[in-house]
Description:
11% strand
Amino acid sequence: MPSIDNLLAQLEEAKRQFGPGNGDITERLLSELAKADFSDAESLIRFHEALLFIRSHPQSPGAFQTSQQLLSKFGESVDRVRASGADMTPFDYIEYSGIARTVISGTFSYDIARFLLRRHRSRIEADLNQPANPERFGSTLPRFVPLLYEDSLVEANIPYYKWLGVAASHKNRLAWLIRQFEALDLPPRKRAELYDSLGLRILWGLGDTGASRSRNIRQVNKVFYHTVSLIKRNEVSLDHEFQASPIGLKKLSRAQGEAMQDMLRDTTTVRYRELYGITHGDPENVLRADIGRGVEIFLWGLPPDRRLPLRAYHAGFTLKNGVPINYIEGISICERMEIGFNTFYTFREGESAWVYAKVLRLLHQIVGVTCISIDPYQLGFHNDEAIDSGAFWFYRKLGFRPTRPDLAALMAVEEKKIKRNPAYRTSPRILKRLSEGNVVYESPGSTAGDWDKFAVRNIGLAVQRRMAREFDGSSARIRAASAVEVAKGIGIKQPAVGSKHRQAFEDLSLVLALIPDLLEWSDSEKRAVARIIPAKTGPNEARYARLLQAHQKLRAAIIKLGSGSEN
Length: 567
């Protein structure tokens, strides 16, 4: 019999081969490995990741069904490895966490802690074996625990977890603590800030629940089988996608939307990831697109009370034959969008470039964006994973370019080396240099270079400078004065205090008040600004983004403020 390592190597090679007979080879290897006696975590993890890839990119019905069956009972294999006394640490690594019958131990936000209790209450508990922040516990826990100040104000080495355990009695201590926070007479964000300051770790025993990566799979009516080679990166054209006809969309019901968001929250949480738009997504506005090849894209925005002050926000994820393979984040102002697109480790040998292009096409269709910007972190800035994967060249080969002239020049040098010697590989040192600035893609017909120097942070800093210079550093005073100035300047009434539009009006007024010639704009231009303000809190931020795109003077002012020309 070949060794387990040898069989795994064969399977890892076979799962990448697509053509006549390849499904039979994969099925045979799966059958042999199903009978193998795994004795170490690393080998079992390799098997698990291969199974997930095969389940999402099956070569045949047999490979699909066998991988599904093995994943459904994968927890039994984990238990056998644990019982053998093997080191289980590799199951905790972020690349591999979330496998059935393993345990998650991490610090999660208040809102994710509440989500976990709602969805997985019997499997969630506070991890009292891990040290938290004792100073914060001393400041916060006395709100809920009578007489704790008797100990915390004058003694050293306070056993806060003991106080918490006794106060919660035999109840779920995390549930008890969250209930106390929910009862506080504080706005939701203040409660979240107070809870998050504790740094409390949570234990989550996944068992065989649908939250584990082994079983978090949506059943599909029709499976797409890969019988020919996968679509390669050099076969993908962003220019073509941005000029293609619209993709069909379906708006989900609130219940369906919430179910899909819950699926993604499970998907990311078991991987120790949190994303703002996943935690706080709006279930009322979930869109689904079936783009073929077994791929579904789900996108949504934020509810009005969770939106960013200036930019529109969209988030979502992609399923491949029912398996979550990535998550998406798009943050836009006018036609410029900063895109976050993270394909999970297991699926990076798939059709990542093709899926990415379809996601951008869909965001262009929904939001109207034509300039796509990639943050340096995703290219490798303080991100070794992106350096190792050569992320810069992934984007460059899709048509992205550096916005900094010095990095564009360095890239040109590297491209000449590659042209002279196709075997040449850019060194990690140079990849780190190339990752120091944004890269952008501009679709056909858009103006090149308009957003090269833009950063939304520059607008915020300009507001702070005005606050320090004219309002003695008072946030309340600059907000009130800007609101009065803008309302008078464009000829509208301020929304009532407490109304759903008030916060958005004040936020936008801070920016509008920085525009020196606002009062000189035409009546039609002022009326257009007046329509933009309530759109920020409308049912869907896509309309807000499109109204910004259409207002040429406001767009130009935003670019100027964000480019730091007068800051």
